[in-house]
Amino acid sequence: MTRLTRQLILNQAMIRKWTVFSADVRTAFLQARPPDRGRRLLAKPLPELAQAMNLTPEECDELTGSAYGLTTAPREWFQDVAGTIQRLGGRQCKTDPCAWVILNAEHEVVGYLSSHVDDFLVTGNQEDGTWLKFVQAFKSAYKWSPWQDSDFLHCGLRVIQHEDKSFTLDHSTFSSDLNQMPPADSQQTQMNENQDVACIEHVNKLVREVHGQGKINVVSWRSFRLPRVARISLSAEAQALGHCEQELMFARLEWHELNGGTIDVRNPADSTSKVPGHIIIDARGVYDALEKADPGMASFNVKDKYTSLELMGINENLRQQKTALAWCDSDHQLADGLTKASKLRHPGAFMSAKKRRSLEASKA
User: Fold this and answer.
1) Most exposed of 52, 94, 159, 263 (fewest Cβ within 10 Å)?
2) What is the 3-state secondary structure (H, E, C) of 115-152?
3) Per-residue pLDDT at 339 exceeds 60
4) Could you tell me the pTM of the whole model?
5) What is the CATH number of domain 3-31+72-173?
6) In what order do the strands lie in the sheet with 148-149?
């Protein structure tokens, strides 16, 4: 299960007002029923095991099941789970093989499952008979630890579901397990020589970042180095836009699947275009190049030819997938605050004056 899948399923559960459960399979690899192997797997037993099995020192045993330590164990476990869910009527997502959609007889979405090895997120319509029957059969297929809801840990992330079915994702457990990082000798010497309040301000800033709470709903985010050397500023903006367009495309594609749609891998734009998508950038040069592009022109008038080719590909993808492209100035670009501390803004800064006065009056 990818992070994108987790975020999209949590969003679907919130929209549909479903409760999300965390389910953990006990000794998952030992419960897997591997298919017939192409070769026999023999092992030399430990002395106490050989004695219990009445084996001589020259004899060995054959491993017919799965076990921890086998390089094929994770794959055999996944194949077993995927086969079980398929037999019970689940449909595997093409965008993420570790996610499944459950449909009823009317082809309505009634539930979701997603797995990270043996940790599952399960959510569905508790009033639908198809979903209740599926959950009962799925529970009977394996031995589980008690299922949890409302407040639980999933892969190191604390998930809290409130009464209105909204979620808060908490990294406090992960942060508390981080090892302390002592300052380097040069840093410590510098701080001893320059004893002023600047050091305290830096520490307070770090504490605010660790204990901060962002009231935003981001489904995909990442930081990375550009794959190519940017010879001009337009090249860096074009490469960043290309990665953003890909992430948006895949998120729309998976959202379409989670809504019960099917995907033609030979023509993914047909499915992507059914989910509205918007890209908002603050690079005026890139925006003008894409908006003023003539479909009959061979290329963009850009000195860097790789950038020209990349813009041509982006422009074609935006057109095929019916993606709306918009521009705003840097001061109103909300995404800047995700990577630049100096660009963090209070939410009120993005309200109109009339709405801000109305909000302040309601609080008074």
Assistant:
1) 52
2) EECCEEEEEECCCCHHHHHHHHHHHHHCCECCCEECEE
3) yes
4) 0.81
5) 3.30.70.2630
6) 90-92, 99-103, 109-116, 119-124, 20-24, 148-149
